[in-house]
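Hi team,

As requested, here is the filled-out complex form for the heme C run. I kept the field names the same as last time so the parser does not choke. Let me know if anything looks off before we queue the next batch.

— J.
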Amino acid sequence: MSARGAAVLLAVLALLAGCKRDGRPAPGLQGDPQRGRIALTQYACHACHVIPGVAGSEVYVGRPLEGLAKRKFIAGKLPASQANLVLWIRNPQAIDPETAMPAMGVSERDALDISAYLLSQ
Ligand code: HEC
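And here is what came back:
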């Protein structure tokens, strides 16, 4: 690699590192929002939801997942808190047996990271 190429690579790495620092969870939140954003795409949550910061087509099977930090209720049922959001993401039927959202085997850690991301939007 040329010296110039190496310099460009270093600049990109520095930028990426900067992004990671900016991606710290909001105060009082647990989990890693940057990891959560990736997990959201791995579980294909955007197949049914419009999600801020996650590219995808406009699908409105579920409501857009924006402004969750300002909500009073999750899915109109659960008082909004990070712990309840994790519960919903892991097992929506346990909260609302008739919801169309499937349980997708989301691990505890992934659900925590996803909730950290959604609550930071
Ligand atoms: C097959 C479609 C589908 C998929 C895939 C899906 N959801 Fe949902 N989701 C829904 C539907 C439908 C609702 C509305 C449930 C309700 O309000 O009763 C919902 C509701 C929600 C809510 C509550 C929203 C609100 O406005 O209160 C959250 C949070 C949520 N989903 C997160 C996720 C996450 C995170 C994933 C990925 C792990 C995911 N969903 C995957 C269909 C889906």
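Two things worth flagging: Residues 3-118 form a domain with the Cytochrome Bc1 Complex; Chain D, domain 2 fold (CATH 1.10.760.10). The chain has one domain: 3-118.

Thanks,
J.
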